[in-house]
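User: I need a structural model of Alpha-1,3-glucosyltransferase from Gossypium stocksii for a docking pre-check later this week. Nothing fancy, just the predicted structure tokens so I can convert them on my end. Input:
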Amino acid sequence: MEITLNLPPKDWYRNTSVNDLSYWGLDYPPLTAYQSYVHGVFLKTFDPDSVALFTSRGYESYLGKLLMRWTVLSSEW
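Assistant: Understood. Predicted structure tokens for Alpha-1,3-glucosyltransferase:
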């Protein structure tokens, strides 16, 4: 979600100085990436630290975990 939320779509699948593909590169189709973007907008509303581009690595909070679980459940619907 961090990538789709903080980078332009043209950079989602490219290795750049801000998009380390070996760490968190997108490996799913563009439609799913846009779904991830929508979830990222939702998370940013309630817990912006959970989708910050660099500082979200290793970030854990109770609210963040609940919101991440919500993204999984909403994807199933």
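Before docking, keep this in mind: The mean pLDDT is 89.
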